[in-house]
Amino acid sequence: MKRIIACLMLLLGAVGFSQAVETPSQLKIRAATKLAKKFLRKQGIMGMSISVSQHGELIWSQGFGFSNKKPRTRVAPDETIFRIASVSKSITALALAKLAEDKWIDLDSSIYKYVPDYPKYKYDLTVRQLGGDLSGIRHYKDHAEYTYNKKMSITEGLDLFKNDSLLFEPGSRYNYTTFGFVLLSEVMQKATNIPFDTFVNDTIFKPLKMEHSMMDVSDALVPNRIQFYRSSFLKKPVLASAVSNEFKVAGGGFLSTSEDLIKFGNEIIFPKIVSKESLSQIAASQHLLTGENTGYGIGFAVEHTKKGTPKYYHPGGGVGASTLLAIYPEEELVIAVLTNLTGVSMQDFGNELESVFLD
Q1: SS3 for 30-74, per residue?
Q2: Share of the chain above pLDDT 70, in %
Q3: 3 pLDDT band (50/70/90 cuts)?
Q4: Could you tell me the pLDDT band of residue 18, with boundaries at 50, 70 and 90?
Q5: ω into 170 cis (within 30 of 0)
Q6: Is the four-CA dihedral 146, 71, 254, 44 of positive or negative sign?
Q7: For a tag on the chain, would you pick the N or C end, based on fewer CB atoms within 10 A?
Q8: The pLDDT of residue 15 is above 80
Q9: Going by C-beta distance under 8 Å and a sequence separation of 6 or more, which residues neighbour residue 33?
Q10: What is the per-residue pLDDT for 22?
């Protein structure tokens, strides 16, 4: 009898042990969750959403914290809508690739082919240079431009910079610029005679079933849209000032969820909207006139992982938003991170998540 009881205990213990053993995927998710909670606390973030897919399947999607203080609503990665800030540039790039593939736009043509009334600069510049931050058009000159709160159309927004001289001869230097993407969106809507946000909605969001993605209209009531915060002197989140992003939608004015961005990222890996050849036009590093790589394509930073495999990504920083989208085509991996706090550095955290999921 004692022998039977002992055998039963060993059997039950073995079953319990087998149930407790975690798969490699579960171990990665547990490690990533621990990193995310630490990051949330350290940065004083009110709400964050992280989604990860591999081989086209969602493997982890989790909300952290709250979308607002009152009422305290928990973040849900499938429906909580964030500002995605400069990740918008990647969406604009895919829309541009579609226009180029369908022969609406020639990337190497002068911008004046599409906007002939735009003020003439000392140098000509191409659509490709505009999208690759090689145009010489300036970025924000001060905090007031970054937080501009006058509702304007894209065309009206050009007035902020169109009469300023170029910073350099196009192609001679790299200079990150959201205003360059404002002009790019004007080029795109003039070429198609379709409002830019309408074109993106019909060409990108609808086909990819990105049902929670849209332009950030400042006076619109958007269900499940998160509240936007900045960090106070005591590292406590307080409501950020209002901002109008309509005129700079192409460079930093879209709203989305982390799960919608996963759908977008998988389009870059498994393209259906455009061909792989067209994707290579935006996801390959551009070059200076000297031949030097810039590390930026159109709407994507282009680098390599520690393993030497390609990595396409874009961080974002806006009023009430710090974000990151990273795409690893060889590993068929996509990581999307959205927060509702201004001024959070996302690069190190993104690298930590990369180390976990590429290990």
Answers
A1: HHHHHHHHHHHHHHCCCEEEEEEEECCEEEEEEEEEEEECCCCEE
A2: 94
A3: low
A4: very low
A5: no
A6: positive
A7: N
A8: no
A9: 62
A10: 83
pTM flag (> 0.90): yes
List the one residue out of 230, 126, 250, 96 whose CA is nearest residue 177. 250
Q: One-letter amino acid identity for 135?
A: S
Q: At what angle do helices 178-192 and 88-101 cross, to 10 degrees?
A: 30
Contact of 268 with 328, CB cutoff 8 Å: no
β-bridge mates for residue 62, sequence order: 50
Beta bridge partners of residue 99, listed in sequence order: none
CA distance to 50, 95, 117, 166, per residue, from 125 (Å): 38, 20, 14, 10
User: Cα separation of 335 and 324, whole Å?
Assistant: 8
The Cα–Cα gap between 168 and 139 comes to 13
Residue 220: other Cβ atoms inside 10 A = 10
Task: Give the residue from 77, 130, 78 showing the smallest Cα distance to 107.
Answer: 130
Task: Say how far apart CA 64 and CA 40 lie, in whole Å.
Answer: 8
Residue 181's nearest CA partner among 318, 334, 4 is 318
